[in-house]
Amino acid sequence: MIQVIDQALFELINMSCHNAVFNFIMPIFSQVWLMWVGALLCVVVYAVHCWRCSLEPVGRVVMLVLLMSLSVGVTDFSTSVLKHSIGRDRPCEEVIGANHYNTTTQQWEVVTEVTADKGKMGGSMPSPPAAACMAVAVVLSLLFYRSNPWVFLLPVSVGFAQVYVGKNYPFDIVIGWAIGLVSVIVVWWVCHLVFVRFSSHRKLG
Questions:
Q1: What is the distance of C-alpha 194 from the center of its chain?
Q2: Is residue 166 a contact partner of residue 109, using CB atoms and an 8 Å limit?
Q3: DSSP 3-state percent helix, strand, coil across the chain (nearest 5)
Q4: pLDDT beneath 70: ranges in the chain
Q5: Cβ neighbours, 10 Å, residue 97
Q6: Neighbour-count burial for 170-199, b at 16+ CB within 10 Å, e otherwise
Q7: Quick one: which of 3, 65, 76, 185 has the fewest CB in 10 Å?
Q8: How many CA atoms lie within 13 A of 205 on its CB side?
Q9: Coil, helix or strand for 107?
Q10: For helices 57-86 and 33-52, angle between their N-to-C axes, nearest 10 degrees
């Protein structure tokens, strides 16, 4: 049942919604560098905000970068392990009629046959870009309270783009988002635990 819904959603996004405007925009959103550019801009804005409000910008920016780096690192490791374990083929390798953006030639292609060497592009589930973008968005939402829910436009846009360019199925994106969310929760909890224990040791000392 889930696979049927997943396939139907993929065909809706990748085939039915195919148009010239999205053909220009979505390949940009499917690039990983977009996430890092967005994260860097947020760090700079946060640093300027802290400086203007006299909130010890260095310490707060270091905390933001540390949380973001650890969360993305845990997310990347988790998705890599799961991708190799699950081994799901990408839709651009097996769905006849799917639209695929070839990053090498920078051209749109229509899948006409199932490739003989499926798996050369790596596993489809979960989606690392979707997971990493969700991790970054959750970290920013925790530190930029006024940014909710706008920061979540990044993982939504990237997730939609990954399906639109034929790299992932919708359910791959959802699993990626879940991994990104859980990774941040784990990192946040561990960092909080370490901070509390470090503070208690300093008081005892």
A1: 27
A2: no
A3: 70, 5, 25
A4: 34-35, 38-39, 42-43, 45-47, 49-61, 115-122, 145-148, 194-205
A5: 10
A6: bbbbbbbbebbbbbbeebbeeeeeeeeeee
A7: 3
A8: 6
A9: strand
A10: 160
- Residue-wise pLDDT for 110-159, tens only, equals 888 776 665 566 678 888 889 988 988 888 887 776 666 777 888 898 99
Q: Name the residue among 110, 114, 154 with its Cα closest to residue 131.
A: 154
State both tokens at 73: 């690192």
Whole-structure pTM value: 0.83
Token pair listed for 136 = 């970054």
**Residue partners of 76: CB distance under 8 A and separation at least 6:** 128, 131, 132
DSSP SS3 for 121? coil
Task: Give strand ranges (E) for the chain.
Answer: 99-102, 107-110
Cβ proximity of 75 and 179 under 8 Å: yes
Whole-number percent of the chain with pLDDT over 70: 76
Of 122, 138, 137, 136, whose CA–CA distance to 172 is shortest?
122
Amino acid in position 177: W
Q: For residue 119, what are its two tokens? A: 């798996």
